[in-house]
């Protein structure tokens, strides 16, 4: 039987605002500002969802979980990620690996990466070794550098027999 391997990509941005909880990679990162959004605005989970859906050619996160739907107001993005995993597994797909980058000027993301990996591995039911999370600033340039927002990118491989 032929192994079907597909790749997917995700990109997302959220505004940062003072006084909001900052959910990133499934955990709450201590900071003066947090991301603004209809859900909990977890930009890393959103790009992973979009990359997974894209790999399976199943549209995007906004298609499945509308930001007009009050049901998703303030929702924990880990619940959305679980639902995306269920959609893919219904189609017979398994995860190969995930690679991601968070673009944020501050706070430093690196100390939180082990906790994010552990959290996402548990939510997705895959080994931590299959989840890579990287972080970069944008050297004070652009909306990320000016601390107005947070951006993230992710690529994934999925496969099925
Ligand atoms: Zn988002």
UniProtKB/TrEMBL annotation:
<feature type="binding site">
    <location>
        <position position="143"/>
    </location>
    <ligand>
        <name>4-CDP-2-C-methyl-D-erythritol 2-phosphate</name>
    </ligand>
</feature>
<feature type="binding site">
    <location>
        <begin position="38"/>
        <end position="39"/>
    </location>
    <ligand>
        <name>4-CDP-2-C-methyl-D-erythritol 2-phosphate</name>
    </ligand>
</feature>
<feature type="binding site">
    <location>
        <begin position="65"/>
        <end position="69"/>
    </location>
    <ligand>
        <name>4-CDP-2-C-methyl-D-erythritol 2-phosphate</name>
    </ligand>
</feature>
<keyword id="KW-0414">Isoprene biosynthesis</keyword>
<dbReference type="GO" id="GO:0046872">
    <property type="term" value="F:metal ion binding"/>
</dbReference>
<dbReference type="GO" id="GO:0016114">
    <property type="term" value="P:terpenoid biosynthetic process"/>
</dbReference>
<feature type="binding site">
    <location>
        <position position="12"/>
    </location>
    <ligand>
        <name>a divalent metal cation</name>
    </ligand>
</feature>
<feature type="binding site">
    <location>
        <position position="146"/>
    </location>
    <ligand>
        <name>4-CDP-2-C-methyl-D-erythritol 2-phosphate</name>
    </ligand>
</feature>
<dbReference type="InterPro" id="IPR003526">
    <property type="entry name" value="MECDP_synthase"/>
</dbReference>
<feature type="binding site">
    <location>
        <begin position="12"/>
        <end position="14"/>
    </location>
    <ligand>
        <name>4-CDP-2-C-methyl-D-erythritol 2-phosphate</name>
    </ligand>
</feature>
<comment type="similarity">
    <text>Belongs to the IspF family.</text>
</comment>
<dbReference type="GO" id="GO:0008685">
    <property type="term" value="F:2-C-methyl-D-erythritol 2,4-cyclodiphosphate synthase activity"/>
</dbReference>
<comment type="subunit">
    <text>Homotrimer.</text>
</comment>
<feature type="binding site">
    <location>
        <position position="46"/>
    </location>
    <ligand>
        <name>a divalent metal cation</name>
    </ligand>
</feature>
<dbReference type="Pfam" id="PF02542">
    <property type="entry name" value="YgbB"/>
</dbReference>
<feature type="site" description="Transition state stabilizer">
    <location>
        <position position="38"/>
    </location>
</feature>
<keyword id="KW-0456">Lyase</keyword>
<keyword id="KW-0479">Metal-binding</keyword>
<feature type="binding site">
    <location>
        <begin position="136"/>
        <end position="139"/>
    </location>
    <ligand>
        <name>4-CDP-2-C-methyl-D-erythritol 2-phosphate</name>
    </ligand>
</feature>
<dbReference type="GO" id="GO:0019288">
    <property type="term" value="P:isopentenyl diphosphate biosynthetic process, methylerythritol 4-phosphate pathway"/>
</dbReference>
<feature type="site" description="Transition state stabilizer">
    <location>
        <position position="137"/>
    </location>
</feature>
<feature type="binding site">
    <location>
        <begin position="60"/>
        <end position="62"/>
    </location>
    <ligand>
        <name>4-CDP-2-C-methyl-D-erythritol 2-phosphate</name>
    </ligand>
</feature>
<protein>
    <recommendedName>
        <fullName>2-C-methyl-D-erythritol 2,4-cyclodiphosphate synthase</fullName>
        <ecNumber>4.6.1.12</ecNumber>
    </recommendedName>
</protein>
<dbReference type="InterPro" id="IPR036571">
    <property type="entry name" value="MECDP_synthase_sf"/>
</dbReference>
<comment type="function">
    <text>Involved in the biosynthesis of isopentenyl diphosphate (IPP) and dimethylallyl diphosphate (DMAPP), two major building blocks of isoprenoid compounds. Catalyzes the conversion of 4-diphosphocytidyl-2-C-methyl-D-erythritol 2-phosphate (CDP-ME2P) to 2-C-methyl-D-erythritol 2,4-cyclodiphosphate (ME-CPP) with a corresponding release of cytidine 5-monophosphate (CMP).</text>
</comment>
<feature type="domain" description="2-C-methyl-D-erythritol 2,4-cyclodiphosphate synthase">
    <location>
        <begin position="5"/>
        <end position="158"/>
    </location>
</feature>
<comment type="pathway">
    <text>Isoprenoid biosynthesis; isopentenyl diphosphate biosynthesis via DXP pathway; isopentenyl diphosphate from 1-deoxy-D-xylulose 5-phosphate: step 4/6.</text>
</comment>
<feature type="binding site">
    <location>
        <position position="14"/>
    </location>
    <ligand>
        <name>a divalent metal cation</name>
    </ligand>
</feature>
